Amino acid sequence: MRNNRLGNTELNISELGFGCGAVGGLMVLGEHKEMFDAIEYAIDSGVNYFDTARVYGDGLSEIHTGAILRELRRTDLIVGTKVRVSGSEFEDISNTVSDQIDNSLRRLGLDTIDIVYTHNRIGSERNVSSGTFSLEDLSPVVEVFEAAVKAGKIKYWGFNGLGETGAIKESLNRYSPSAIHTCYNLLNPTSGYDLPPSFSYQNFEQLMNVASDKGIGTVGIRILAGGALSGSVERHPIAQQNVDPISTSNTFQEDVNRTSDFQFLITEGFVENFVEASVRFAISNNNLDTSLIGLSNFDQLKQAIQYVNRGPLSQEAIDKISDTWTSK
Ligand SMILES: NC(=O)c1ccc[n+]([C@@H]2O[C@H](COP(=O)([O-])OP(=O)(O)OC[C@H]3O[C@@H](n4cnc5c(N)ncnc54)[C@H](OP(=O)(O)O)[C@@H]3O)[C@@H](O)[C@H]2O)c1
After folding, report:
1. How many folded domains does the chain comprise?
2. Catalytic residue among 56, 117, 184, 307
């Protein structure tokens, strides 16, 4: 497993990151033994980044992740979490964010969190109902983040690279976060590739490349399109049963249907299955510092690690994948 420097930070992050989110559900609703075995196996395999958030299971993901890392006596790993402001909290962003950092520290059982991101989307205007931050809303957030760095509560801070492409890019110029989360997968690769305006889904206009050029760390999310890129609509029993696509089709079913575009990767022998194709596609991009995978069970983690260890996809495979985006 390769490690990459996360942007200009001092964090050396594994190319595969452990997603502790509710879509997969393992770190929210999993049995303790399965969570423990998965985390231990991940660490033994070279995974050193654990990505959680306050809202995953209403605090449960942070509690479980923190408890298992303590049980394993591992303090040399990288933990990231997120703050999310909603509803009336928009009236007092500073205190909300400050309290949420303190509460995350408590739930994780840590003295310092390596990186805290905003979970809210970014837009040109505030939208309370969709939980969207305007560029101005980010100003008090950044002030609180900087104060938390000074107080030793967090080491670095970052943004969620979801929302309106122009506003996200402007937020990077204005505030220089240490890292961003960016949606990147076979269905919507626009964070890493220049595709024409006619491309079917939201165009992130090479957000990942822009961030990387600025020394901003890049964390890939939704590399399996929330599970649709497994090629099956079936959800694991502890996984979130209804998954809203992020920046791909309107429905999960449509995303699943689109996997047939990549069937050639299997029939021509580039990969065994769509999950391998998706994971190896993500790690093939040198501008992506880490790729998160959401997990429902230990087996899915083992598979992801096995695929990462097969390395990036061949250039021939990447070229053929690129043809599918432009032929649509
Ligand atoms: N900043 C943000 O707003 C944001 C948004 C989304 C995600 N994230 C982060 O990114 C992480 C990953 O994202 P995600 O969970 O949304 O999506 P994802 O990684 O694209 O998809 C996860 C789903 O893929 C399926 N899967 C995983 N391994 C598999 C395997 N080997 N075989 C078959 N299916 C497999 C599982 O679904 P089934 O088993 O049910 O099929 C799982 O629920 C999250 O945990 C979170 O840390 C951040």
Report:
1. 1
2. 56
Tell me which residue of 197, 221, 210, 199 sits closest to 82, measured CA to CA: 221
**In terms of C-beta density within 10 A (0-12 exposed, 13-18 middle, 19 or more buried), how is residue 33 classed?**
exposed
Structural domain boundaries, residue 80? 3-326
Report residues whose beta carbon is within 6 angstroms of any ligand 1 atom: 19-21, 23-24, 51, 119, 160, 162, 181, 221-227, 230, 235-236, 239, 275, 292-296, 300, 303-304
Torsion of CA 183, 188, 192, 197, to 10 degrees: -120
CATH number of the domain within which 214 lies: 3.20.20.100
- Ligand 1 atom with the smallest distance to the CA of 27 is 45
Q: Per-residue confidence of the chain (328 residues) as pLDDT tens digits?
A: 999 999 999 999 999 999 999 988 999 999 999 999 999 999 999 999 999 999 999 999 999 999 999 999 988 899 999 999 999 999 999 999 999 999 999 999 999 999 999 999 999 999 999 999 999 999 999 999 999 999 999 999 999 999 999 999 999 999 999 999 999 999 999 999 999 988 999 999 999 999 999 999 999 999 999 999 999 888 888 888 888 999 999 999 999 999 999 999 999 999 999 999 999 999 999 999 999 999 999 999 999 999 999 999 999 999 999 999 987 6
